Amino acid sequence: AWIAAVSRIGRLILFDRRGVGLSDRVGARPTVDATAQDIVAVMNAAGSRRALLIGSSEGGPGCIRFAVDHPDRLVGLVLWGSLAKGSRTPDYAFALTSEQYDLWKRRLIANWGG
Predict the structure, then answer these.
(1) Where are the domains of the chain?
(2) What φ, ψ does residue 31 adopt, rounded to 5°?
């Protein structure tokens, strides 16, 4: 429903990160920098000079990198269900610990299927 609502406001360009969804399988997890470069490539191919980026889940860090590298091409940034970094470290306490992640994953598989 949100995609339909956003598309009524303006032009909507969607893409999946390399190796995710409908995109080609690449054999390795793309880096944050590669995702940011892919955003540039998609925007250029679509003829989009500036955009409001919505980074969902693992797409968030690539959108953050894009925002840092190309602020002139950004109208705004929305992060949805995303973190700047996916794993907790001493200097980044906002992600799940390994134990919390394992518990979350077990619950996800038990309740959603796996």
Answers:
(1) 2-82, 85-114
(2) -75, 165
Radius of gyration of the chain (CA): 16
SS (H, E, C) 18-62: CCCCCCCCCCCCCCHHHHHHHHHHHHHHHCCCCEEEEEEHHHHHH
pLDDT in tens, 44-100: 999 999 999 999 888 889 999 999 999 999 999 999 888 777 778 888 888 888 898
Closest C-alpha to 67, from 58, 59, 76: 76
DSSP state of 71: G
Whole-prediction pTM: 0.74
